[in-house]
Amino acid sequence: MDSLPGHLLDKVLFKTDLRALAMLCCTNTSLQSHIQNPSFVSEYYSQIKSSLLHTSTRGSVNIGYYNPHDDSRSLKIKRISRECRLLGYCSGLLLLYFIDDRLCVTNPVRKKFRFLTLSNHMRYDARMVLGLAVDQTDRTTKSFKVVCIFKMAKTDETRYGFDINAGDSWTLSKTTLACHKSNLDYSMKNPIYVDGSLHWLRNDGSIIAFNPETEQARLIQIELPHGLSSRTVFASIDNSLTLVSANEEVICVYSLKNILSDPKWVLMKQIHNGVIKKIGVEWYIEAYNSKCIVLRGDQKNTVQFSCARLVYMYDLIDNKWVAMGSVPTWSYASLDFILFTPSPSSVVGLDEILACGDRNISSLRLIMGLVDGSSSEKVENKLGRMSVEE
Fold it and tell me: Which has more confidence, 344 or 242?
């Protein structure tokens, strides 16, 4: 393949799945250089459709998933051995919380992971206070940090502190941030990592920005767009902070412009909300990225006193709504959804060999298989052989 012209090599590699692409990076240095060239990465990832993961906000042994490469093209459920929560996603990494007080950062494509202890400052909803940051250290490697934001002693103002974990232990940052009184907006769930900083949205519309590398923090004073509905998600699109808000007629996409000098929310796109009449009374936007929107609706059956929880995905590339199926009753009232685009990049601080005989490890293997499209049996066998060899 080294002798092929660049444009022909690209055609071949664009048809290669991520697992095979990651293997090529490990076996051939010239191919590794080509595959991890920013122009190739940008074009390759523009063609990848996102997987969808979901589970109960309270944690569950059931993980819902959709993989765009499966023939069924519908939501499926996998039962794991340990209760788990989905806390966040950033640049091909997942942040998970297993209900025995352990966090986990994992790259499902490369089958790498790192378990972390909990921060001593975790006093609120873990999904809101914890942020995952992933930076490119060179063309082939990334590094990650997990940041916990917490309120300090109560005074006339609100003061925040930050706890940082780069894979080994938690370090309390010397940086604190004093703000006018307002709480983190828990309806927006997880913070967003953009341009080197994690961003937490507060109830009054202001945004806390913290750079895990420089440990600089600041408050972005801004109001929410006028007429924003209660059905809104906080996201990152094209390396910009984004709000996606919907009513019964349209879905509005706002982007934050001039974040350093004169921050303003600017309406960038409106999408016809074409499925609300099919869903019923209660509906929610659950996730959004540059490729799709995930919307959940609760269709109530007044005769049987039950509720069918239906999931729809809007494909921004094909401009159409697709019915994904229903969410089972174990999900309770609140769900965490993550749109996941996998990455073959290696990450500093992640381990590759998984030990045997741990229920968290077994659950992690299954989740890895859901994300990259491989069967759980294949993942178990592969990682089992790796552990034996080690």
Answer: 242
Locate 285 and state its tokens.
Answer: 């936007």
**Judgement on whether residues 195 and 327 belong to the same structural domain of the protein:** yes
Region of residue 227 (left: phi > 0; alpha: psi -120 to 50; beta: else): left
Nearest to 332 by CA among 53, 52, 58: 58
What CATH code is carried by the domain that includes residue 127?
2.120.10
| 229 and 289 together in one domain | yes
Angstrom distances, CA of residue 351 to CA of 270, 346, 383: 43, 10, 12
User: What is the DSSP pairing of strand 306-315 with strand 292-301?
Assistant: antiparallel
Looking from the CA of 29 toward its CB, the CA atoms found within 13 Å total 0
Residue 297 has pLDDT above 90, yes or no: no
Q: What is the mean pLDDT of the chain?
A: 80
Verify that 256 and 315 share a domain, yes or no. yes
- Residue 349: band (very low, low, confident or very high) from pLDDT cuts 50, 70, 90: confident
Residue 100 to residue 61: CA distance in whole angstroms: 13
Say if strands 346-348 and 141-151 run parallel, antiparallel, or are unpaired.
parallel
Gap between the Cα atoms of 383 and 387, Å rounded:
6
Residue 299 has pLDDT above 80, yes or no: no
Residues 40 and 181 in one domain: no
Domain limits for position 42? 1-47
- Domain co-membership, 22 together with 89: no
Question: Could you tell me which residue, 195 or 188, shows the higher pLDDT?
Answer: 195
Task: Identify whether residues 25 and 172 lie together within a single domain.
Answer: no
> Euclidean distance between the first and final Cα of the chain, in Å?
32
CB 86 within 8 A of CB 336: yes
Q: Between the ranges 117-126, 269-278, 356-365, where is the mean pLDDT highest?
A: 117-126
Select from 152, 76, 147 the least CA-distant residue to 105.
147
CA–CA separation, 136 and 211 (whole Å): 14
Same domain, 28 and 159: no
Entry pTM: 0.82
Contact indicator for 179, 157 with CB cutoff of 8 Å: yes
Among 286, 304, 160, smallest CA distance to 232 is for 286
